[in-house]
Amino acid sequence: MEQTLSIIKPDAVAKNVVGQILSRFEAAGLRIAATKKTRLSRVDAEAFYAIHAERPFFKDLVDFMISGPVVVTVLEGEDAMAKNRELMGATNPAEAAPGTIRADFADSIDANAVHGSDSVENAEIEINFFFAQREIY
Ligand code: GDP
């Protein structure tokens, strides 16, 4: 079974739509193997998004990700990584397909409701960033 990491970002947590978003994963046949609410420190967020360190939006991204609590989830199922990316929709909610999480819950490219691993290799790294193996079922 493939696993991937989802983060419900501070905007969606503040909107109180955590349950609605988790329901979409379950409705699509993905299982919640682990989940928790947490708040990233600046050091955590900079490390998690290190791949974007040179991008002009890096500081805005880090500032946004530490602005409030997030809900991190390990999703498990067949093609979990690609399935989650499909459910999320395009990075810019203005371009996200109707019915996707970002089309329905996101306000801007910064406050875009969810993060999802973009490869199976990155999923493993991102899962290990947030969870110990004993927390994943
Ligand atoms: P994702 O995999 O769809 O989340 O997109 P990326 O990995 O490319 O980017 C990570 C996050 O950085 C996105 O979810 C956005 O919140 C933010 N981001 C990406 N591109 C831009 C941009 O051009 N401008 C701004 N302000 N933020 C961006």
From TrEMBL:
CDD domains: NDPk_I. Its EC number is 2.7.4.6. Its cofactor is Mg(2+). GO terms for molecular function: ATP binding; metal ion binding; nucleoside diphosphate kinase activity. It is found in: Cytoplasm. One of its GO terms (biological process) is GTP biosynthetic process. The keyword Phosphoprotein applies. Keywords: ATP-binding, Cytoplasm, Kinase, Magnesium, Metal-binding, Nucleotide-binding, Phosphoprotein, Transferase. InterPro entries: NDK-like_dom, NDK-like_dom_sf, Nucleoside_diP_kinase, Nucleoside_diP_kinase_AS. Belongs to the NDK family. NCBIfam families: PRK00668.1 (NF001908). This is nucleoside-diphosphate kinase. The lineage of its organism: unclassified sequences, metagenomes, ecological metagenomes.
